[in-house]
Amino acid sequence: MPAKPTVVTNPLTNRGTAFTIEERRRLGLIGRFPSAVETLDQQAARTYRQLCGFEEDMDKYVFLDQLHDRNETLYYRILTDHLAELLPVVYDPTVGQAIKLWSREYRRSRAVYLSIDRIEDVRPSFEALGLGPDDVDLLVVSDAEEILGIGDWGVNGTDISVGKLAVYTAAAGIHPGRTIAVNLDCGTDNEALLNDPAYLGNRHARVRGRRYDELIDEYLSVAAELFPHALLHFEDFGPSNARRILLANREKYRIFNDDMQGTGAIVIAAVVSGMKVTGQSFADQRLLVYGAGTAGTGMADQIHAGMVRDGLSPDEARSRIWLIDRAGLITDDMEDLPDYQQAYARPASEVADWTREHGKVGLLETVRRVHPTILIGTSTDHGAFTREVIEEMSNGVERPIVLPLSNPTERIEAMPADVIAWSGGKALVATGIPVEPFEYEGTTFTIGQGNNALLYPGLGLGVIVSGASQVTDGMLLAAAQAVASQVDPTTPGTSLLPPVENLRASSATVAVAVARQAEADGVATASHDNLIQAVQDAMWQPVYPEVEV
Asked: What is the per-residue pLDDT across 85-99, written as a single tens digit (0 to 9) for each?
Protein backbone atom coordinates (compact mmCIF):
# COMPACT_ATOMS: atom_id res chain seq x y z
CA MET A 1 0.00 0.00 0.00
CA PRO A 2 1.31 3.49 -0.80
CA ALA A 3 2.64 5.55 2.08
CA LYS A 4 0.11 7.41 4.19
CA PRO A 5 -0.02 11.21 4.16
CA THR A 6 2.02 12.86 6.93
CA VAL A 7 -1.16 14.13 8.61
CA VAL A 8 -1.77 10.48 9.53
CA THR A 9 1.80 9.41 10.26
CA ASN A 10 2.41 12.43 12.51
CA PRO A 11 0.97 11.50 15.94
CA LEU A 12 0.35 15.16 16.77
CA THR A 13 -2.01 15.60 13.81
CA ASN A 14 -3.41 12.11 13.35
CA ARG A 15 -7.01 11.69 14.50
CA GLY A 16 -7.77 8.31 12.90
CA THR A 17 -11.49 7.61 12.64
CA ALA A 18 -12.26 11.15 13.82
CA PHE A 19 -11.34 12.65 10.42
CA THR A 20 -14.54 13.91 8.86
CA ILE A 21 -15.58 12.89 5.34
CA GLU A 22 -14.72 16.38 4.12
CA GLU A 23 -11.29 16.19 5.77
CA ARG A 24 -10.66 12.75 4.27
CA ARG A 25 -11.39 14.12 0.80
CA ARG A 26 -9.32 17.27 1.29
CA LEU A 27 -6.35 15.46 2.78
CA GLY A 28 -6.18 12.50 0.44
CA LEU A 29 -7.49 10.03 3.03
CA ILE A 30 -10.45 8.58 1.14
CA GLY A 31 -10.53 4.84 1.67
CA ARG A 32 -7.98 4.94 4.48
CA PHE A 33 -10.50 4.51 7.33
CA PRO A 34 -13.82 2.74 8.00
CA SER A 35 -16.90 4.74 7.03
CA ALA A 36 -17.86 5.75 10.56
CA VAL A 37 -16.76 9.18 11.75
CA GLU A 38 -16.19 9.11 15.50
CA THR A 39 -15.83 11.81 18.10
CA LEU A 40 -12.82 11.96 20.37
CA ASP A 41 -15.14 10.92 23.22
CA GLN A 42 -16.11 7.76 21.35
CA GLN A 43 -12.50 6.95 20.53
CA ALA A 44 -11.49 7.50 24.14
CA ALA A 45 -14.25 5.24 25.47
CA ARG A 46 -13.25 2.39 23.14
CA THR A 47 -9.54 2.83 23.81
CA TYR A 48 -10.03 2.81 27.57
CA ARG A 49 -12.08 -0.40 27.30
CA GLN A 50 -9.22 -1.94 25.33
CA LEU A 51 -6.75 -0.79 27.96
CA CYS A 52 -8.81 -2.31 30.77
CA GLY A 53 -8.62 -5.65 28.97
CA PHE A 54 -4.99 -5.99 30.01
CA GLU A 55 -4.34 -7.40 33.46
CA GLU A 56 -0.63 -6.63 33.75
CA ASP A 57 0.62 -3.04 34.07
CA MET A 58 3.50 -3.77 31.68
CA ASP A 59 1.02 -4.77 28.97
CA LYS A 60 -0.88 -1.54 29.63
CA TYR A 61 2.41 0.37 29.35
CA VAL A 62 3.14 -1.12 25.92
CA PHE A 63 -0.42 -0.48 24.73
CA LEU A 64 -0.24 3.17 25.81
CA ASP A 65 3.24 3.56 24.33
CA GLN A 66 1.98 2.36 20.96
CA LEU A 67 -1.01 4.71 21.21
CA HIS A 68 1.40 7.54 22.00
CA ASP A 69 3.28 6.79 18.78
CA ARG A 70 0.07 6.69 16.75
CA ASN A 71 -2.27 9.40 18.11
CA GLU A 72 -0.87 11.79 20.67
CA THR A 73 -4.13 13.64 21.33
CA LEU A 74 -6.01 10.44 22.08
CA TYR A 75 -3.13 9.21 24.25
CA TYR A 76 -3.25 12.33 26.40
CA ARG A 77 -7.04 12.28 26.54
CA ILE A 78 -6.88 8.79 28.06
CA LEU A 79 -4.06 9.77 30.40
CA THR A 80 -5.75 13.00 31.50
CA ASP A 81 -9.14 11.36 32.09
CA HIS A 82 -7.61 8.55 34.19
CA LEU A 83 -4.46 10.21 35.52
CA ALA A 84 -4.48 8.88 39.09
CA GLU A 85 -5.03 5.35 37.80
CA LEU A 86 -2.45 5.52 35.02
CA LEU A 87 0.40 7.46 36.69
CA PRO A 88 1.86 4.20 38.07
CA VAL A 89 1.59 2.73 34.58
CA VAL A 90 3.23 5.45 32.49
CA TYR A 91 5.81 6.28 35.15
CA ASP A 92 6.95 4.83 38.46
CA PRO A 93 6.91 1.88 39.10
CA THR A 94 6.06 0.33 35.71
CA VAL A 95 8.56 2.45 33.79
CA GLY A 96 11.31 0.76 35.81
CA GLN A 97 10.34 -2.60 34.34
CA ALA A 98 10.08 -1.08 30.86
CA ILE A 99 13.58 0.35 31.17
CA LYS A 100 15.05 -3.05 31.93
CA LEU A 101 13.53 -4.36 28.68
CA TRP A 102 14.03 -1.22 26.55
CA SER A 103 16.81 -2.34 24.21
CA ARG A 104 15.33 -5.79 23.66
CA GLU A 105 11.85 -4.42 23.00
CA TYR A 106 12.86 -1.23 21.20
CA ARG A 107 9.92 0.12 19.21
CA ARG A 108 10.46 3.75 18.29
CA SER A 109 12.73 6.59 19.29
CA ARG A 110 11.07 9.51 21.06
CA ALA A 111 14.24 11.24 22.22
CA VAL A 112 17.48 12.97 21.26
CA TYR A 113 20.53 10.81 22.02
CA LEU A 114 23.78 12.59 22.88
CA SER A 115 26.84 10.37 23.09
CA ILE A 116 29.83 11.15 25.28
CA ASP A 117 31.94 9.66 22.47
CA ARG A 118 30.77 12.37 20.06
CA ILE A 119 30.32 15.59 22.01
CA GLU A 120 30.71 17.50 18.76
CA ASP A 121 27.31 16.10 17.70
CA VAL A 122 25.36 17.88 20.47
CA ARG A 123 24.68 21.00 18.44
CA PRO A 124 23.79 19.31 15.11
CA SER A 125 21.56 16.83 16.98
CA PHE A 126 19.40 19.67 18.25
CA GLU A 127 19.65 21.74 15.08
CA ALA A 128 18.38 18.77 13.06
CA LEU A 129 15.06 19.01 14.89
CA GLY A 130 14.27 22.16 12.90
CA LEU A 131 12.93 23.96 15.96
CA GLY A 132 13.35 27.69 16.50
CA PRO A 133 14.13 29.61 19.70
CA ASP A 134 10.43 30.10 20.49
CA ASP A 135 9.36 26.53 19.75
CA VAL A 136 10.46 24.70 22.91
CA ASP A 137 9.26 25.11 26.51
CA LEU A 138 10.82 22.13 28.22
CA LEU A 139 13.64 19.59 27.93
CA VAL A 140 13.97 16.61 30.27
CA VAL A 141 17.44 15.07 30.29
CA SER A 142 18.84 12.02 32.07
CA ASP A 143 22.14 10.18 32.03
CA ALA A 144 20.28 7.25 33.65
CA GLU A 145 22.92 6.57 36.29
CA GLU A 146 20.55 6.31 39.25
CA ILE A 147 17.06 5.38 38.08
CA LEU A 148 14.19 4.97 40.53
CA GLY A 149 16.13 2.73 42.87
CA ILE A 150 17.16 0.31 40.09
CA GLY A 151 20.51 1.94 39.36
CA ASP A 152 22.49 2.44 36.15
CA TRP A 153 20.65 1.57 32.94
CA GLY A 154 22.49 3.57 30.30
CA VAL A 155 20.54 4.32 27.15
CA ASN A 156 17.72 2.07 28.39
CA GLY A 157 16.86 4.95 30.73
CA THR A 158 15.50 7.01 27.83
CA ASP A 159 11.93 6.27 28.91
CA ILE A 160 12.59 8.17 32.14
CA SER A 161 12.73 11.40 30.16
CA VAL A 162 9.83 10.38 27.91
CA GLY A 163 7.66 9.39 30.88
CA LYS A 164 8.44 12.57 32.79
CA LEU A 165 7.34 14.67 29.82
CA ALA A 166 4.11 12.68 29.58
CA VAL A 167 3.31 13.58 33.20
CA TYR A 168 4.13 17.24 32.54
CA THR A 169 1.64 17.27 29.70
CA ALA A 170 -1.12 15.27 31.35
CA ALA A 171 -0.87 17.01 34.72
CA ALA A 172 -0.04 20.59 33.70
CA GLY A 173 -0.88 20.91 30.03
CA ILE A 174 2.66 21.49 28.75
CA HIS A 175 2.22 21.23 24.97
CA PRO A 176 3.72 17.86 23.88
CA GLY A 177 4.97 19.38 20.63
CA ARG A 178 7.03 21.90 22.60
CA THR A 179 9.02 19.38 24.63
CA ILE A 180 12.17 17.33 24.02
CA ALA A 181 13.32 14.17 25.77
CA VAL A 182 17.11 13.77 25.95
CA ASN A 183 19.35 10.85 26.88
CA LEU A 184 23.01 11.43 27.69
CA ASP A 185 24.71 8.17 26.76
CA CYS A 186 27.81 8.17 28.94
CA GLY A 187 28.28 4.41 28.87
CA THR A 188 27.17 2.19 31.72
CA ASP A 189 28.65 0.23 34.60
CA ASN A 190 25.81 -2.28 34.34
CA GLU A 191 27.65 -5.47 33.39
CA ALA A 192 24.47 -7.20 32.28
CA LEU A 193 23.85 -4.48 29.69
CA LEU A 194 27.44 -4.40 28.48
CA ASN A 195 27.25 -8.13 27.81
CA ASP A 196 23.77 -8.08 26.28
CA PRO A 197 23.97 -8.37 22.45
CA ALA A 198 20.69 -6.44 22.19
CA TYR A 199 21.93 -3.39 24.14
CA LEU A 200 21.63 -0.22 22.03
CA GLY A 201 23.92 2.16 23.94
CA ASN A 202 27.67 2.77 24.14
CA ARG A 203 29.44 -0.46 25.08
CA HIS A 204 31.92 0.83 27.59
CA ALA A 205 32.11 1.71 31.25
CA ARG A 206 30.48 4.94 32.36
CA VAL A 207 32.73 7.90 31.59
CA ARG A 208 33.38 10.31 34.43
CA GLY A 209 35.59 13.28 35.18
CA ARG A 210 36.61 15.94 32.68
CA ARG A 211 35.03 14.33 29.63
CA TYR A 212 31.70 13.98 31.43
CA ASP A 213 31.79 17.62 32.51
CA GLU A 214 32.49 18.66 28.93
CA LEU A 215 29.34 16.87 27.76
CA ILE A 216 27.23 18.51 30.50
CA ASP A 217 28.65 21.95 29.68
CA GLU A 218 28.04 21.47 25.97
CA TYR A 219 24.49 20.26 26.54
CA LEU A 220 23.64 23.19 28.79
CA SER A 221 25.20 25.86 26.61
CA VAL A 222 23.74 24.57 23.32
CA ALA A 223 20.26 23.85 24.73
CA ALA A 224 20.12 27.27 26.40
CA GLU A 225 21.31 29.00 23.22
CA LEU A 226 18.96 27.24 20.79
CA PHE A 227 15.96 27.14 23.14
CA PRO A 228 16.47 30.20 25.36
CA HIS A 229 13.00 30.08 26.96
CA ALA A 230 13.01 26.38 27.87
CA LEU A 231 13.21 24.86 31.34
CA LEU A 232 16.10 22.38 31.54
CA HIS A 233 14.90 19.55 33.76
CA PHE A 234 17.51 17.05 35.07
CA GLU A 235 16.34 13.59 36.13
CA ASP A 236 17.95 10.52 37.72
CA PHE A 237 21.57 11.62 37.67
CA GLY A 238 23.96 9.90 40.06
CA PRO A 239 24.43 11.42 43.52
CA SER A 240 28.02 12.41 42.81
CA ASN A 241 26.87 14.56 39.88
CA ALA A 242 23.31 15.70 40.58
CA ARG A 243 23.99 18.22 43.33
CA ARG A 244 27.28 19.37 41.82
CA ILE A 245 25.70 20.13 38.42
CA LEU A 246 22.77 21.93 40.04
CA LEU A 247 24.87 24.14 42.31
CA ALA A 248 27.32 25.02 39.53
CA ASN A 249 24.64 25.99 37.02
CA ARG A 250 21.39 27.00 38.73
CA GLU A 251 22.14 30.74 38.60
CA LYS A 252 23.41 30.58 35.02
CA TYR A 253 20.68 28.47 33.39
CA ARG A 254 16.96 27.81 33.78
CA ILE A 255 17.74 24.44 35.42
CA PHE A 256 15.74 22.19 37.73
CA ASN A 257 16.63 18.83 39.30
CA ASP A 258 13.51 16.97 40.35
CA ASP A 259 15.32 14.36 42.45
CA MET A 260 16.77 17.07 44.63
CA GLN A 261 14.56 20.15 44.33
CA GLY A 262 11.24 18.52 43.46
CA THR A 263 11.54 15.81 46.09
CA GLY A 264 12.74 18.35 48.61
CA ALA A 265 9.83 20.66 47.83
CA ILE A 266 7.16 17.96 48.14
CA VAL A 267 8.61 17.11 51.54
CA ILE A 268 8.46 20.81 52.39
CA ALA A 269 4.77 20.70 51.50
CA ALA A 270 4.20 17.87 53.98
CA VAL A 271 6.22 19.73 56.62
CA VAL A 272 4.28 22.96 56.00
CA SER A 273 1.05 21.02 56.54
CA GLY A 274 2.47 19.47 59.69
CA MET A 275 3.48 22.87 61.05
CA LYS A 276 -0.11 24.07 60.59
CA VAL A 277 -0.97 21.46 63.23
CA THR A 278 1.96 22.15 65.55
CA GLY A 279 1.82 25.94 65.21
CA GLN A 280 5.58 26.07 64.60
CA SER A 281 7.89 27.53 61.95
CA PHE A 282 10.91 26.09 60.17
CA ALA A 283 13.12 27.83 62.72
CA ASP A 284 11.63 25.57 65.42
CA GLN A 285 12.51 22.32 63.68
CA ARG A 286 15.19 19.69 64.29
CA LEU A 287 15.61 17.50 61.22
CA LEU A 288 16.95 13.95 61.07
CA VAL A 289 17.32 12.39 57.61
CA TYR A 290 17.82 8.62 57.51
CA GLY A 291 19.26 7.89 54.06
CA ALA A 292 21.64 10.66 53.05
CA GLY A 293 21.72 10.23 49.28
CA THR A 294 20.77 12.75 46.61
CA ALA A 295 17.10 12.77 47.58
CA GLY A 296 17.71 12.94 51.32
CA THR A 297 20.25 15.75 51.13
CA GLY A 298 17.99 17.58 48.66
CA MET A 299 15.29 17.52 51.33
CA ALA A 300 17.77 18.77 53.90
CA ASP A 301 18.76 21.59 51.54
CA GLN A 302 15.15 22.71 51.16
CA ILE A 303 14.39 22.57 54.88
CA HIS A 304 17.66 24.39 55.58
CA ALA A 305 16.56 27.14 53.19
CA GLY A 306 13.22 27.32 55.03
CA MET A 307 15.00 27.70 58.36
CA VAL A 308 17.10 30.56 56.99
CA ARG A 309 14.03 32.28 55.58
CA ASP A 310 12.46 32.01 59.04
CA GLY A 311 15.31 33.87 60.67
CA LEU A 312 18.13 31.44 61.42
CA SER A 313 21.64 32.02 60.14
CA PRO A 314 22.96 29.39 57.69
CA ASP A 315 25.19 27.96 60.43
CA GLU A 316 22.35 27.90 62.96
CA ALA A 317 20.17 26.10 60.44
CA ARG A 318 22.86 23.50 59.70
CA SER A 319 23.24 22.90 63.44
CA ARG A 320 19.64 21.69 63.48
CA ILE A 321 20.13 19.02 60.77
CA TRP A 322 21.51 15.48 61.20
CA LEU A 323 22.13 12.95 58.41
CA ILE A 324 22.53 9.18 58.70
CA ASP A 325 23.71 6.85 55.95
CA ARG A 326 25.09 3.30 55.87
CA ALA A 327 28.14 4.40 57.88
CA GLY A 328 25.93 5.85 60.61
CA LEU A 329 25.59 9.47 61.65
CA ILE A 330 27.60 11.68 59.27
CA THR A 331 30.52 13.31 61.12
CA ASP A 332 33.37 15.48 59.91
CA ASP A 333 36.05 12.89 60.70
CA MET A 334 34.72 10.47 58.07
CA GLU A 335 36.92 10.02 55.02
CA ASP A 336 35.81 10.61 51.43
CA LEU A 337 32.48 12.19 52.27
CA PRO A 338 30.57 13.16 49.10
CA ASP A 339 30.24 16.90 48.63
CA TYR A 340 26.50 16.79 49.19
CA GLN A 341 27.04 15.37 52.72
CA GLN A 342 29.94 17.54 53.80
CA ALA A 343 27.83 20.62 54.59
CA TYR A 344 25.83 18.65 57.18
CA ALA A 345 28.61 16.62 58.78
CA ARG A 346 28.44 16.91 62.57
CA PRO A 347 31.60 17.69 64.57
CA ALA A 348 33.10 14.38 65.71
CA SER A 349 33.71 15.92 69.14
CA GLU A 350 29.96 16.52 69.51
CA VAL A 351 29.19 12.80 69.43
CA ALA A 352 32.32 11.42 71.08
CA ASP A 353 30.37 10.02 74.04
CA TRP A 354 27.36 8.77 72.06
CA THR A 355 26.63 5.05 72.10
CA ARG A 356 27.85 3.13 69.07
CA GLU A 357 26.89 -0.19 67.55
CA HIS A 358 29.40 -1.86 65.29
CA GLY A 359 31.46 1.31 65.44
CA LYS A 360 28.75 3.72 64.23
CA VAL A 361 26.12 6.01 65.72
CA GLY A 362 22.77 4.61 64.69
CA LEU A 363 19.23 5.87 64.31
CA LEU A 364 17.90 5.12 67.80
CA GLU A 365 20.85 6.75 69.58
CA THR A 366 20.54 9.84 67.39
CA VAL A 367 16.81 10.12 68.10
CA ARG A 368 17.49 9.79 71.85
CA ARG A 369 20.10 12.54 71.74
CA VAL A 370 18.51 14.92 69.27
CA HIS A 371 14.74 14.54 69.81
CA PRO A 372 14.04 15.50 66.18
CA THR A 373 10.78 17.18 65.30
CA ILE A 374 11.02 15.78 61.75
CA LEU A 375 12.22 12.29 60.84
CA ILE A 376 12.60 11.55 57.12
CA GLY A 377 13.35 8.13 55.66
CA THR A 378 14.92 7.80 52.21
CA SER A 379 17.05 4.75 53.03
CA THR A 380 15.14 1.81 51.49
CA ASP A 381 15.93 0.13 54.85
CA HIS A 382 12.67 -1.69 55.49
CA GLY A 383 11.49 -1.52 59.08
CA ALA A 384 14.21 0.91 60.20
CA PHE A 385 11.69 3.11 62.00
CA THR A 386 11.07 0.61 64.79
CA ARG A 387 8.59 0.87 67.62
CA GLU A 388 11.42 1.93 69.93
CA VAL A 389 12.48 4.71 67.53
CA ILE A 390 8.95 6.10 67.16
CA GLU A 391 8.22 5.85 70.89
CA GLU A 392 11.48 7.63 71.72
CA MET A 393 10.71 10.37 69.20
CA SER A 394 7.18 10.80 70.57
CA ASN A 395 8.48 11.07 74.12
CA GLY A 396 10.55 14.08 73.17
CA VAL A 397 8.16 15.82 70.76
CA GLU A 398 4.43 16.45 71.15
CA ARG A 399 3.48 16.06 67.44
CA PRO A 400 6.43 14.54 65.55
CA ILE A 401 6.44 14.67 61.75
CA VAL A 402 7.41 11.22 60.46
CA LEU A 403 7.95 10.76 56.73
CA PRO A 404 8.94 7.19 55.69
CA LEU A 405 9.37 7.95 51.99
CA SER A 406 11.16 4.90 50.60
CA ASN A 407 9.33 2.83 48.04
CA PRO A 408 8.10 0.28 47.08
CA THR A 409 6.29 -1.13 50.12
CA GLU A 410 8.93 -3.76 50.81
CA ARG A 411 11.49 -0.95 51.31
CA ILE A 412 9.50 1.50 53.43
CA GLU A 413 11.01 2.41 56.81
CA ALA A 414 7.70 1.86 58.63
CA MET A 415 4.06 1.44 57.75
CA PRO A 416 1.91 4.44 58.70
CA ALA A 417 -0.55 2.39 60.76
CA ASP A 418 2.33 1.25 62.96
CA VAL A 419 3.75 4.78 63.29
CA ILE A 420 0.35 6.10 64.33
CA ALA A 421 -0.16 3.31 66.88
CA TRP A 422 3.38 3.50 68.33
CA SER A 423 3.08 7.27 68.73
CA GLY A 424 -0.32 7.04 70.38
CA GLY A 425 -1.90 8.82 67.42
CA LYS A 426 0.39 11.84 67.79
CA ALA A 427 2.59 11.42 64.69
CA LEU A 428 1.92 13.39 61.52
CA VAL A 429 2.69 11.02 58.65
CA ALA A 430 3.15 11.05 54.89
CA THR A 431 4.72 8.30 52.79
CA GLY A 432 6.30 7.56 49.45
CA ILE A 433 3.79 4.80 48.68
CA PRO A 434 0.00 4.80 48.33
CA VAL A 435 -1.68 3.75 51.59
CA GLU A 436 -5.32 2.88 52.16
CA PRO A 437 -7.12 4.79 54.95
CA PHE A 438 -7.17 3.03 58.32
CA GLU A 439 -8.69 3.51 61.75
CA TYR A 440 -6.97 4.08 65.07
CA GLU A 441 -8.99 4.54 68.25
CA GLY A 442 -12.06 5.65 66.36
CA THR A 443 -10.32 8.09 64.00
CA THR A 444 -9.90 7.38 60.29
CA PHE A 445 -6.39 8.30 59.13
CA THR A 446 -5.80 9.26 55.51
CA ILE A 447 -2.12 9.18 54.60
CA GLY A 448 -0.85 11.45 51.85
CA GLN A 449 1.65 10.18 49.31
CA GLY A 450 4.72 12.35 48.70
CA ASN A 451 4.38 12.08 44.95
CA ASN A 452 6.52 14.61 43.05
CA ALA A 453 3.80 14.75 40.40
CA LEU A 454 1.88 16.96 42.82
CA LEU A 455 4.54 19.61 42.38
CA TYR A 456 6.92 19.55 39.42
CA PRO A 457 4.34 19.82 36.60
CA GLY A 458 2.87 22.97 38.13
CA LEU A 459 6.34 24.31 38.88
CA GLY A 460 7.33 23.83 35.25
CA LEU A 461 4.15 25.52 34.03
CA GLY A 462 4.76 28.45 36.38
CA VAL A 463 8.32 28.84 35.06
CA ILE A 464 7.05 28.79 31.47
CA VAL A 465 4.24 31.30 32.06
CA SER A 466 6.48 33.70 34.00
CA GLY A 467 9.49 33.24 31.73
CA ALA A 468 11.57 32.87 34.89
CA SER A 469 15.29 33.06 34.15
CA GLN A 470 16.05 30.63 36.98
CA VAL A 471 14.31 28.46 39.57
CA THR A 472 14.81 30.13 42.94
CA ASP A 473 14.45 28.69 46.44
CA GLY A 474 11.53 31.08 46.87
CA MET A 475 9.77 29.55 43.87
CA LEU A 476 10.29 26.05 45.27
CA LEU A 477 8.85 27.14 48.62
CA ALA A 478 5.92 28.80 46.86
CA ALA A 479 5.23 25.55 45.00
CA ALA A 480 5.36 23.59 48.26
CA GLN A 481 3.04 26.02 50.02
CA ALA A 482 0.61 25.87 47.10
CA VAL A 483 0.49 22.08 47.39
CA ALA A 484 0.00 22.29 51.16
CA SER A 485 -2.75 24.88 50.73
CA GLN A 486 -4.96 22.26 49.12
CA VAL A 487 -5.53 20.35 52.37
CA ASP A 488 -6.64 21.25 55.91
CA PRO A 489 -4.56 18.98 58.16
CA THR A 490 -5.95 20.38 61.42
CA THR A 491 -8.82 17.87 61.41
CA PRO A 492 -7.65 14.66 63.14
CA GLY A 493 -6.62 11.98 60.68
CA THR A 494 -6.54 14.31 57.67
CA SER A 495 -3.83 13.84 55.04
CA LEU A 496 -0.83 16.19 54.98
CA LEU A 497 -0.87 16.19 51.17
CA PRO A 498 -3.63 16.38 48.54
CA PRO A 499 -4.61 13.34 46.46
CA VAL A 500 -3.49 13.00 42.86
CA GLU A 501 -7.02 12.62 41.48
CA ASN A 502 -7.25 16.21 40.26
CA LEU A 503 -3.70 16.97 39.23
CA ARG A 504 -4.57 19.49 36.51
CA ALA A 505 -6.36 21.79 38.94
CA SER A 506 -3.61 21.26 41.50
CA SER A 507 -0.91 22.02 38.91
CA ALA A 508 -2.67 25.25 37.92
CA THR A 509 -2.70 26.34 41.58
CA VAL A 510 1.01 25.59 41.89
CA ALA A 511 1.79 27.37 38.60
CA VAL A 512 0.11 30.59 39.70
CA ALA A 513 2.01 30.59 42.99
CA VAL A 514 5.33 29.91 41.27
CA ALA A 515 4.79 32.62 38.65
CA ARG A 516 3.91 35.15 41.35
CA GLN A 517 7.01 34.26 43.31
CA ALA A 518 9.15 34.55 40.17
CA GLU A 519 7.93 38.13 39.88
CA ALA A 520 8.63 38.78 43.57
CA ASP A 521 12.14 37.32 43.23
CA GLY A 522 12.86 39.50 40.20
CA VAL A 523 13.51 36.60 37.81
CA ALA A 524 10.28 36.77 35.75
CA THR A 525 10.68 38.01 32.18
CA ALA A 526 6.97 38.02 31.29
CA SER A 527 4.13 39.85 33.02
CA HIS A 528 0.38 39.24 32.86
CA ASP A 529 -2.60 41.38 33.82
CA ASN A 530 -4.46 38.27 34.89
CA LEU A 531 -2.04 35.55 35.97
CA ILE A 532 -4.73 32.98 36.70
CA GLN A 533 -6.12 33.33 33.18
CA ALA A 534 -2.60 33.30 31.71
CA VAL A 535 -1.97 29.93 33.36
CA GLN A 536 -5.27 28.54 32.08
CA ASP A 537 -4.53 29.78 28.56
CA ALA A 538 -1.10 28.16 28.63
CA MET A 539 -2.46 24.69 29.45
CA TRP A 540 -2.74 22.54 26.32
CA GLN A 541 -5.93 20.51 26.13
CA PRO A 542 -6.12 17.07 24.50
CA VAL A 543 -8.51 18.02 21.71
CA TYR A 544 -7.98 17.59 18.01
CA PRO A 545 -6.37 20.63 16.39
CA GLU A 546 -7.50 22.23 13.17
CA VAL A 547 -6.06 20.29 10.27
CA GLU A 548 -4.09 22.29 7.76
CA VAL A 549 -3.10 21.07 4.33
From this structure: 999 999 888 998 999
